[in-house]
Design brief:
- By secondary structure, the protein is mainly beta.
- It contains one helix and seven strands; from the N terminus they run ββββββαβ.
- It has a seven-stranded antiparallel beta sheet with strand order 4-3-7-1-2-6-5, with no helix packed on it.
- A hairpin with an 8-residue loop joins strand 3 and strand 4.
- The radius of gyration is 12 Å and the shape is globular.
- The relative contact order is 0.36.
Amino acid sequence: MIQSLFTVTENVCLAKNIWRMRLQGDTSAITAPGQFVNIQLEGHFLRRPFSICDWSESTLTVVYRTVGKGTAELAEYTPGKMIEILTGLG
């Protein structure tokens, strides 16, 4: 497990309540799509788990649905925003 800072490069609405977020950072602990990352949201004690949709040497993509307060706040993140993420999770 690696704790890293990632930068939001894209956060777009694909359909009603469905978002795609692309992030840039250290993806060295990611080995397969479907693994999880835990994203720390500002002002929230618990991290949010997300399944990895795609990744490359320095970027990762998650697709998520806004279902509550935390994911609604995540949908407001804009490019350039820094996020603390745990990678390399099962």
